[in-house]
Amino acid sequence: MLYHFVLCLSNWETVSICFSESYESLSAGLQNALWKLGGIPRYHKTDNLTSAVKKVGSPEEFTANYQGLADHYGFTACHTQPAHPNENGDVEQRHHRLKRAVEQALILRGSRDFTGRREYEQFLETLLDQLNAGRTECLAEEVKALRPLPPRRHEDFTRAACRVSRFSTIRVLKNSYSVHSRLIGQMVDVRIYADHIEVWYAQRPIETLPRLRGENSHCINYRHVIDTLVRKPGAFENYRYKEDLFPTSQFRMAYDLLRQQHEMKQANKQYLKILELAARESQTAVNEALRY
Question: Which helix (H) or strand (E) holds 189?
């Protein structure tokens, strides 16, 4: 998905890649647009996003996070009414035309495959530069009405406090993430960005993890839990995230071979020693050794 920012007179526009209609995506996209534009318009109108607009009947019109963002930049927040996209018709038309422009640019490119996110971002930036090239005259009129930017950006993340469980995991937005086992029982601060989360402890960042989408997913790093499992190998057999402790197919094949040659308890101990060696030394080197 794309966050799409449009000025209504010139139709100057810019986009940011986002993965959900979250406040973090809205905040990052809007701030990217304002700093690229170099100023702040008097009004900012969005559609009826739940990440920005409270439900009908709520005493507050906007969420606390979005109102804080508006206060930081000093713009007046506005929104369309539910099921009335015509109230933002000029922008809706630009959505349609942008989608068509992206489609045509992909056809001319001859491929929809990109080596990574950065290459796709560069593709979009080039396209937007071309679209904006003929809008300089009207844009100059709009720029005169913009107010200066503040000294710094507003935080484009939300915060959460989490206690590390006995399984060395934390729950963030109904998903599970592993952290180092030395933090079991401790409280950690989590900064939730649009595409990743940061885990802080004692005012220092200790982990940066990809943000999971949806609910009841998990991101488990065997390096976080190996110390605990080596001390208590009996827990490995019924470990909830056992499948995540086979980083490559070679590790899985080695484990299956150990189970064929030894009793379960001994096989688990031997495999955990292999996994510990990968965590301590080099996963790549251990993986290559397992090939032979």
Answer: strand 187-192
